[in-house]
Design a protein that fits this description.
Radius of gyration: 13 Å
Order of helices and strands: HHHHH
Number of domains: 1
Structural class: mainly alpha
Mean pLDDT: 97
Helix content: 55-70%
Number of strands: 0
Number of helices: 5
Length: 80
């Protein structure tokens, strides 16, 4: 979640989901399993064709293909 927020800090769904997960963890409640619909919205690796994500990536580099964006995200995550 922190990685997703570092890339898309203004994404309201990611912010709200992060808040909810933190609340559950404080209460020592489970955060898994996740609903697939939610996972598709919070997991940047599943959003390589998302306009908001593309715009954020394009601030640093221009990548045309989803697999290039996936690889860029992976390299960012590896050093996060």
């Amino acid at each position: 979640m922190k990685f997703a927020l570092s890339i898309l800090p203004h994404d309201s769904f990611i912010n709200e989901y992060y808040r909810k997960v933190n609340e559950l963890r404080v209460k020592k409640q489970m955060t898994l399993p996740v609903i697939l619909k939610n996972e598709r919205r919070i997991n940047l690796f599943l959003r390589t064709e998302d306009v908001d994500l593309i715009n954020e990536i394009n601030k640093e580099t221009i990548l045309q293909q989803p697999e290039e964006r996936f690889a860029w995200l992976r390299s960012k995550k590896d050093t996060f």
